[in-house]
Amino acid sequence: NYFATTQFIIDKSTSYFDNKYAPLNAFNAVPDAKILAVLRNPVDRAISHWAFSMKNGHETKSLVDIITNEALQLRPFSGISVSPYKYLDRGYYAKHLRNWNKYFPNSQIRIVILEELNREKTLINEVARFLAEKRLQTSRLSLITDDGKLIKLNSGSYPGVRTSELSEAKHLLHQYYRNKNKELEVFMGRKIMSWSSVIIASQSNF
């Protein structure tokens, strides 16, 4: 509904970003596809993922236990399409993007940092030009609120799963992702300043 013509076919999913077979399957189906990866700070992403699994009855382990025992990510699951336990691996963005880059050239891949997208509204126009190869009237997309903020979709809070361990978990996650984020910066060819500082757990929403 966002476009005046039917020339665009868009598929959106986070479920197969880290699937090792998905890039080849996608390339075989649509070799000239544009790949847009919107990446959230992997620390916040892991916490949100864990909180979602807790809220939906998939998880009983503490996040600290999971961070210190990666084997817990490999637990069997049923009834859902993807593992609810791969909290850490899904945030190893460089590894997964390198897999997509095996089949899709740099010219067909655009990486956007979510925290930058929330701050820099002009990125919306850049993303639209990357996808459409022409300037679109992005104001028609209703992505920006009246006070200039990006509209949040699928946002939520998880007050029932907050624990005293959350601060410790954040510090452990920052250590876990430090070198992995450097790999991503090398892949992107630039620093990600919005992820560079350690964030102490607060009362804000996951």
Describe it for me?
Helices cover about 35% and strands about 5% of the residues. The chain has 7 helices and 2 strands; from the N terminus they run H-E-H-H-H-E-H-H-H. Helix 2 (about 40-55) crosses helix 7. The two termini are about 30 Å apart.
What's this entry about, in short?
By secondary structure, this protein is mainly alpha-helical.
Secondary-structure blueprint of this entry?
Blueprint lengths: L21 H8 L5 E5 L2 H14 L7 H6 L24 H9 L7 E5 H6 L2 H11 L33 H23 L18
Parallel strand pairs: 1-2
Helix pairs in contact: 2-7, 4-7
Mean pLDDT: 84
Strand content: under 5%
How many helical elements?
7
Radius of gyration: 18 Å
Helix content: 25-40%
The dominant shape is globular
Largest sheet: 2 strands, parallel
Q: Give the number of DSSP strands.
A: 2
**Strand ordering within the main sheet:** 1-2
Q: SSE order, as H and E? A: HEHHHEHHH
Distance between the termini: 30 Å
Sheet/helix structural class: mainly alpha
Unreliable runs: 198-206
Looking at this protein, list some descriptive labels:
206 residues; mainly alpha; globular
